[in-house]
Write a structure and sequence with these properties.
- The protein is of the alpha/beta class.
- The protein has one domain (2-196): P-loop containing nucleotide triphosphate hydrolases (Rossmann fold).
- It has helices spanning 14-23, 31-38, 44-53, 66-74, 77-104, 136-147, 151-159, 164-167, 181-196; strands at residues 2-8, 27-30, 109-113, 128-133, 173-176.
- A five-stranded parallel β-sheet has the order 2-3-1-4-5, with helices on both faces.
- The termini are close together.
């Protein structure tokens, strides 16, 4: 069994690659999904976040407005670290539970899909690290199109993460997602064959 860490920068196409791996038979542990689940209304993490950041981050239903919270923390590194200190240990705990479930269900490849895999030190949890790469201009263009935000906001979000060029230093496999889906799929299939033969 292989535990694979999949990461990349915002708008690099990590979710696209994650979907391809799922189609090939991998079990996906989605860190963003776990982050939403642990911070659902009324849960201990939700309470802690609201206590720290105030009721202003809540939507009319009392759920955390992730966009509003994101605007706060992406603009302030201290606040971002405080949020990560609240959420990361609980996301990690939930990820371990998912891994155990996937093992019990007989999956041969388990993918931890996490944008902050390296920043959070999770690369130690996996046997192989895949980084989805695009150049910064492509990343900016895709982020502007996807999130309909200003250039300044896009750059703030990109700069809040470790640069992709730096993430590559941790990678066992680099998937270049700047040349179209067919090209990306060919790279994923090739790297998939390699791990299936280990």
């Amino acid at each position: 069994m292989v535990i694979l860490g999949l990461t990349g920068g915002i708008a690099s196409g990590k979710s696209t690659v994650s979907g391809m791996l799922k189609d090939m038979g991998a079990y996906i542990v989605d860190a963003d999904k776990l982050a939403r689940e642990i911070a659902a209304k009324g849960k201990p993490t939700w309470r802690e976040i609201v206590n720290r950041f105030g009721d202003g981050i809540l939507d009319p239903n009392g759920e955390i407005d992730r966009k509003r919270l994101g605007q706060m923390v992406f603009a302030d590194e201290v606040l971002r670290k405080e949020l990560e200190n609240i959420t990361h240990p609980r996301i990690k705990e939930a990820a371990y539970a998912e891994i155990e479930k996937a093992k019990a269900d007989g999956y041969k490849v388990i993918v931890i899909d996490a944008p902050l895999l390296i920043e959070a030190g999770w690369e130690k949890m996996v046997q192989t690290v895949w980084v989805v790469y695009v150049d910064e201009n492509t990343q900016i263009t895709r982020l502007l199109e996807r999130d309909k935000i200003s250039l300044a906001a896009a750059l703030t979000r990109i700069r809040a993460q470790m640069p992709l060029k730096e993430k590559i230093n941790y990678a066992d496999v680099v998937i270049d997602n700047s040349k179209g889906l067919d090209n990306t799929l060919a790279q994923v299939m090739s790297a998939w064959r390699d791990i299936k033969h280990e």
